[in-house]
From TrEMBL, chains A, B:
<dbReference type="Pfam" id="PF17767">
    <property type="entry name" value="NAPRTase_N"/>
</dbReference>
<dbReference type="InterPro" id="IPR041525">
    <property type="entry name" value="N/Namide_PRibTrfase"/>
</dbReference>
<dbReference type="Pfam" id="PF17956">
    <property type="entry name" value="NAPRTase_C"/>
</dbReference>
<dbReference type="Pfam" id="PF04095">
    <property type="entry name" value="NAPRTase"/>
</dbReference>
<keyword id="KW-0328">Glycosyltransferase</keyword>
<keyword id="KW-0597">Phosphoprotein</keyword>
<keyword id="KW-0662">Pyridine nucleotide biosynthesis</keyword>
<dbReference type="GO" id="GO:0004516">
    <property type="term" value="F:nicotinate phosphoribosyltransferase activity"/>
</dbReference>
<dbReference type="InterPro" id="IPR013785">
    <property type="entry name" value="Aldolase_TIM"/>
</dbReference>
<dbReference type="InterPro" id="IPR040727">
    <property type="entry name" value="NAPRTase_N"/>
</dbReference>
<protein>
    <recommendedName>
        <fullName>Nicotinate phosphoribosyltransferase</fullName>
        <ecNumber>6.3.4.21</ecNumber>
    </recommendedName>
</protein>
<dbReference type="GO" id="GO:0016757">
    <property type="term" value="F:glycosyltransferase activity"/>
</dbReference>
<dbReference type="InterPro" id="IPR041619">
    <property type="entry name" value="NAPRTase_C"/>
</dbReference>
<comment type="function">
    <text>Catalyzes the first step in the biosynthesis of NAD from nicotinic acid, the ATP-dependent synthesis of beta-nicotinate D-ribonucleotide from nicotinate and 5-phospho-D-ribose 1-phosphate.</text>
</comment>
<comment type="pathway">
    <text>Cofactor biosynthesis; NAD(+) biosynthesis; nicotinate D-ribonucleotide from nicotinate: step 1/1.</text>
</comment>
<feature type="domain" description="Nicotinate phosphoribosyltransferase C-terminal">
    <location>
        <begin position="361"/>
        <end position="473"/>
    </location>
</feature>
<feature type="domain" description="Nicotinate/nicotinamide phosphoribosyltransferase">
    <location>
        <begin position="152"/>
        <end position="321"/>
    </location>
</feature>
Amino acid sequence: MNTRNLTLMTDLYELTMMQGYFEQQENEVVIFDVFFRSNPCSSGYSICAGLEQVIEYIKNLNFSYEDVDYLRGLHMFSEDFLQYLSGYHFTGSIYAIPEGSVIFPKEPLLKVIAPIMEAQLVETAILNILNHQCLIATKASRVVFAAGEGGVMEFGLRRAQGPDAGLFGARAAMIAGCVGTSNVLAGQMFDVPVMGTHAHSWIMSFPDEYTAFKAYAELYPAACTLLVDTYDTLKSGVPNAIRVFQEMKEKGADPKRFGIRLDSGDLAYLSKKARKMLDEAGFPEASICASNDLDEYLIHDLKMQGAAINSWGVGTHLITSKDCPAFGGVYKLAAIQNENGEFVPKIKLSENTEKITNPGNKTIFRIYEKDSGKIKADLICFEDEVIDSSEDLLLFDPLETWKKTKLKGGTYTVREMMEPVFVKGECVYQSPSVMEIASYCKQEKETLWDETKRLFNPHQVYVDLSEQLYQVKKELLDQMSVTD
Amino acid sequence: MNTRNLTLMTDLYELTMMQGYFEQQENEVVIFDVFFRSNPCSSGYSICAGLEQVIEYIKNLNFSYEDVDYLRGLHMFSEDFLQYLSGYHFTGSIYAIPEGSVIFPKEPLLKVIAPIMEAQLVETAILNILNHQCLIATKASRVVFAAGEGGVMEFGLRRAQGPDAGLFGARAAMIAGCVGTSNVLAGQMFDVPVMGTHAHSWIMSFPDEYTAFKAYAELYPAACTLLVDTYDTLKSGVPNAIRVFQEMKEKGADPKRFGIRLDSGDLAYLSKKARKMLDEAGFPEASICASNDLDEYLIHDLKMQGAAINSWGVGTHLITSKDCPAFGGVYKLAAIQNENGEFVPKIKLSENTEKITNPGNKTIFRIYEKDSGKIKADLICFEDEVIDSSEDLLLFDPLETWKKTKLKGGTYTVREMMEPVFVKGECVYQSPSVMEIASYCKQEKETLWDETKRLFNPHQVYVDLSEQLYQVKKELLDQMSVTD
């Protein structure tokens, strides 16, 4: 599956435009930025994910004989153009923010520098991949935040929007801090922990609940989590589980490995009652896992109510990002190279000021408070700008420019966020493993202030423009309105 | 991609339960039903989709050497069990409602009859595939309904939840009545029409809008839809489009092929203004296509406001079913075969009456009013029941049993909805092409009353139980509460 060829996974208009450029013999090098306009799920930040799959996609780009034949059959494309496609490969450069990074609206998280025919083709697939994984990583990060010390298990495969959504959704969820996934294929492909208990059907296939529990416990004494809600949680499920735990303990099993799972009913009430019953029976270490339509808000609320839940199985809401199932990443032209090899900044106007793009060949500098290591702001700059952190730095809001902050030299540090991924067609980036990315992501979240991480009405991180970028943008806008 | 092996695309617990049954030497034939509890998006019906991919999945089930090796590395599974998996293939039977059918909550849309080890494994993938495609087909059907005479184009690939969500989402959208998709890979794989115009970047890559339009029109005179909102829709976009149309007309191009696309701003206002400008310039046949975060409600509303829009490009909301991104299909044990080969009905209790399952080996009879051909009700029956449509038929609500309807013999017709798909491991079903399914789906929607099709507060179709099934369910429930 790693070598799946997704070359035709593109919008038809990318191909018709490509042919247009081909016919015009117009193939200047251009820059496209991928960015998004607002965080999903009212979050204060997003998590970057999907770069490894973008790299695989770019590496595997290649129109097969069948692909070209199919396109010929559409009767839209000339033989010359089809000939060009047969020999197509990506010769451009790509820069991107590493996976697992915290990212913010309006800043490019990936940029493509390539002849326009090549840059246009890859738009759809790059957006598809990044939009999906950034979305699920961001949602999962919120759920993990709500769960605090309790581990979150990704259990959503059956409700995911198709096989890839389950697979790459699990990948994104692991990056964002889940402790495991139920998805065995994800476990195999990404070398991440797989987890699970048993279903109601296990219980129902035995003559009674006790026999079913006993059979399961004897088979899996080292991971003995029993689902207690098939018939009646407190009258039947928990007492039967305790009976089995007692028998297992007598046989020498480790009570730290015992647990129950609640999958219906009032989880706050049932978990507290079950905790009491387990404690009184001498199983204070037995864990209580909860599942059933959980999301970050419900987990937060259950914890507020003192629910005695140690771990959380989260399905539908996480794997579909149910309250906000799309990440609005876009792919916009930022510059065109002229005959002299210079990038001429381009801008897209809009009635909506928020939708006006940032022109030019850009990068992002992240500014941290030196003492705390927390993020002060992100600064979108031209890629050849330099920030000397020993000097004072003036930050200002790019819309309400009177809102200013001056950072004293020596009190802040700077990190350039974009890294080279492809240089002139060659991949120069080695993706870390998913668990390495997860570990990096955890550090990244440490750079956020608590005010940004909170679930409700979080503080939005400042994303400002450098003075130089601001001036160029303003000039372009002024020119545009004069010609209006 | 058709032969992708998704065998490990399962929840870990399916495998741990399988090993449990293996160790218990418990492998009776069981019946699992796939059903859902409510229509997504407040719809009055759902559309069945995904069966072809379920069939491919079942046919390709096979644990490769690498799969078994990966599972061995988890240190959870015995060598005997891994040996069994190496030789695994599906030997069971599957019955299903054909794709494109209208379906309703609580009735099985697919049933698996197989040894429990086999039936358990396939739960997750079957649900993943059906949940996704039924969801998108249902959402797309609503959007198509709202658009009425105007064609709906599926434009969502870049916002879909990963490659498969784009691909199979496009498939489901075509089944439900979209006229085309932008997704070229979907076009290739499913032989469905692909469509598209051009992007803002096309315009921006030219010195000015007029030159960009002219270049596009000369290249694609037979499908000349120009995107008019890059700079200013009414001041620049539409006048430039008209200028190009005039030049093209002089050169002999067919004005029926001209059109504009609006992708921002107030679509009602702009479309009416643009219509007037096009009409006055002598292009009354030029079409107006609209896109920009459309869904069924916005389309309905735009039409109410008299928007002059002929076709609709729908992306994010359709491809993610944004207001309801999960279809709640579940997979529940309904019966276990005893030593005598009889299926003993099984039931799952729940505090929530709605969640109690329907026991036994069942099928669905759809009852139509003979004169109109419209659906009167669906009747869930045991699979060996027979309905003689020359006799009177008493229907009653399975919860509020005093709500009764008697259908006079001769006034109704009956159709059994489930068809054999696999019989004892052999596939006996040939999937129709996607466009054939789409054509069948259109007929299927003709069997719904207008009251069921409407977007707001639709009439819910009756799904009743046969007298025999009702009695068996009642007895099982009574037995359960006695032992409580």
